[in-house]
Each structure stands twice: as structure tokens, then as C-alpha cells.
């Protein structure tokens, strides 16, 4: 069934297009009896306003955008991102705003999407994730005059951030309290600002407790974390505890330990999720509430778009993360 248009209503009623438009939008210039005729027919035929026309008239697209450098099929395997997206969608849905997601393979393609969205007026603002070292995206978005906020593990003036120093200390203090003196940190990509901060914070926490610490990059990959863990437990003076920068990597690392029969080695994850809860043994993890992070980030961007210059640069600081202790972290004999 074709969509009913204002022209269709005008033809059926024998009115001008302008009169029908005025009646539908509650504007003066038409008699009340005429307005009632227009509204009655619009309801009967199921007329709906054109989203693109309405957005153009208000100079807003009623949509926000996110561009992710990853494969679409990989997103479902990342509980953190799924919860984050749910929070964003919840805030935007309540505001009648859509979320446009694009998956790209590299940074140049990502920049191209932002330029195209701006030229076509497709979005009112964007949410950035995974802030990188010397990241060119904020400068590009400033140049395009496209409002944005950052969801990042690193401190930023534009959006949500986590306290990596405090979180690292929670994890390291927990392991130190269990008697561990040799730990390993399997990190995410080393070009991400929050991963750089995590590496430094873990080392500082280890130094504070006179522990030895080694950090290697696992790329948020289950398989990579599995292989790295298998390698590290085979070296002299091997770590007795592992900190993983994601729940997925913690699952891979714990599998490697189980395959090697090493139930004496502790595992903790920087992110909690259903994966950590369902694992056997359950994995000790930080509850960081990505749903709430997405909700508050999207809410602030909505305010920034509605009131330009007022809310755009206020950082959002979350409640402190909480450690959920499960059976994967054990006291040394």
C-alpha cells in the first residue's frame, strides 16, 4: 500500500495543498470546520507525516550516528557494546530520535561517513567510541560543526569516562590481598587511550604492592587471549594471576588455564557480563554498567543538540565501578 500524501488528501477534499498542510500542522489560516474534515480523512486513510520533510523544516534529522571499525558479525560477541547500545537506544527512543550505525574497516572510511552524513544532514550528532592516540576525529567533527560526545574509558571533556586508575587499583589490590606477587595484564589494542592508561595504572598498582607485572596486547580477541595465556604460564616464574581487559578475553584465558590443568591461577576481568556469570568457575569482574553509560551519554548529547554551547563540554563521571568476586580468583596456597 502506497503512503498517503498531503497531495492525496488535498485531491480528495478539493482543497489546496497549503490549506491541508496548515490544517494538519495546527497553523492558522483555515476554518475550524475545514480543519476537522482534513484531520478526519487523514485518520481514515492512515496519513503519517514525512520524517524527512519534518526534519528539513526544523533543520534537524532526529537521528544520531555511530561509526564502528569492526565487522557487524563481531558486535554480538561483545556484551559490553551490546549493553552500551541498549542504553543509547533507550535514551534516544524516549526522545523520538533514531540511531544510525555504520560499520567500516578503517579510519579513513569512518571519516568519510562523517563527511557524508554532514553534507546530507543525516544526523544531528554522533557518539565516538574507542578514543585513539592522536585521534583525528574530534578535530574533524569540530571542522564539520557536527556535535559529538565521546564514550571512552579515558578522561575526556566531551562525554563519559571511567577512572582507569581507580579501577586498576581495585583489581590489583584484590589480587595482592590473595597473596599474588606475579601478575599479567592481557590488554586491548595499544593505540587506544584508555588501554594506555590501564597499562600504566596496573603497573603503578603492582609497584605499590611490590609485585612483578607484565602486560601484553590481546586485541580483545578470545583466541589471542587464549594463546597468550598458554604461553605465559609456561615461562619461568610464570604469573599466578591474570587481569584481562575484556570479558571475552577472560573467557579465552580461563579456557587455556583449564586445558593446562592450572586451577591454581587466578583470573579477573575488567568488564563484567553474562559471560563472566555463566563461566565455570565464575569470573571475578568489575561491574561498570555500560547500559547506564550509554543512557547518560546519549542523554547529554540530546541536551547538547537542543542547547548548543551549553551542555556540549561537560564531562560525565560514572559511579565507581564495583568488584564482583567469584570463584576464578583464589588465594595462593
TrEMBL record:
Cited PROSITE patterns: HTH_LACI_2
Location of the HTH lacI-type domain: 4-58
GO molecular function, one term: DNA-binding transcription factor activity
SMART domains assigned: HTH_LACI
InterPro entries (alphabetical): HTH_LacI (IPR000843), LacI/GalR-like_sensor (IPR046335), Lambda_DNA-bd_dom_sf (IPR010982), Peripla_BP_I (IPR028082)
Matching Pfam families: LacI, Peripla_BP_3
Keyword field: DNA-binding, Transcription, Transcription regulation
Gene3D superfamilies cross-referenced by the UniProt entry: 3.40.50.2300, lambda repressor-like DNA-binding domains (1.10.260.40)
CDD domains linked to this entry: HTH_LacI
Protein name: LacI family transcriptional regulator
Species name: Microlunatus endophyticus
Species lineage: Bacteria, Bacillati, Actinomycetota, Actinomycetes, Propionibacteriales
Amino acid at each position: 500500500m502506497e503512503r498517503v500524501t498531503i497531495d492525496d488528501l488535498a485531491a480528495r477534499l478539493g482543497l489546496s495543498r497549503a490549506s491541508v498542510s496548515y490544517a494538519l500542522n495546527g497553523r492558522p489560516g483555515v476554518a475550524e470546520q475545514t480543519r476537522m474534515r482534513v484531520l478526519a480523512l487523514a485518520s481514515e486513510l492512515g496519513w503519517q507525516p514525512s520524517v524527512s520533510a519534518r526534519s528539513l523544516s526544523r533543520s534537524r534529522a532526529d537521528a544520531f550516528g555511530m561509526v564502528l571499525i569492526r565487522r557487524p558479525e563481531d558486535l554480538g560477541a561483545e556484551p559490553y557494546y551490546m549493553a552500551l547500545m541498549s542504553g543509547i537506544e533507550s535514551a534516544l527512543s524516549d526522545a523520538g530520535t533514531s540511531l544510525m550505525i555504520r560499520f567500516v574497516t578503517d579510519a579513513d572510511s569512518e571519516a568519510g561517513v562523517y563527511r557524508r552524513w554532514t553534507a546530507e544532514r543525516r544526523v544531528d550528532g554522533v557518539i565516538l567510541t574507542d578514543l585513539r592516540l592522536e585521534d583525528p576525529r574530534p578535530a574533524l567533527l569540530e571542522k564539520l560543526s557536527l556535535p559529538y560526545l565521546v564514550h571512552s574509558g579515558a578522561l575526556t571533556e566531551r562525554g563519559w569516562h571511567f577512572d582507569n586508575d581507580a579501577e586498576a587499583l581495585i583489581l590489583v589490590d584484590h589480587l595482592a590481598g590473595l597473596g599474588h606477587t606475579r601478575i599479567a595484564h592481557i590488554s586491548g589494542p595499544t593505540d587506544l587511550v584508555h588501554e594506555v592508561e590501564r597499562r600504566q595504572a596496573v603497573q603503578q598498582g603492582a609497584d605499590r604492592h611490590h609485585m612483578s607485572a607484565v602486560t601484553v596486547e590481546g586485541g580483545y580477541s578470545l583466541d589471542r587471549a587464549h594463546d597468550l595465556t598458554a604461553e605465559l604460564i609456561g615461562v619461568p616464574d610464570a604469573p599466578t594471576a591474570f587481569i584481562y581487559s575484556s570479558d571475552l578475553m577472560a573467557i579465552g584465558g580461563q579456557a587455556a588455564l583449564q586445558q593446562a590443568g592450572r586451577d591454581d591461577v587466578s583470573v579477573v576481568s575488567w568488564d563484567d557480563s553474562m559471560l563472566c556469570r555463566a563461566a565455570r568457575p565464575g569470573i571475578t569482574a568489575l561491574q561498570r554498567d555500560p547500559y547506564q553509560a550509554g543512557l547518560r551519554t546519549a542523554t547529554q548529547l540530546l541536551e547538547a543538540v537542543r542547547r548548543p554551547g551549553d551542555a556540549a563540554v561537560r564531562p560525565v563521571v560514572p559511579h565507581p565501578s564495583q568488584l564482583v568476586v567469584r570463584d576464578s580468583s583464589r588465594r595462593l596456597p
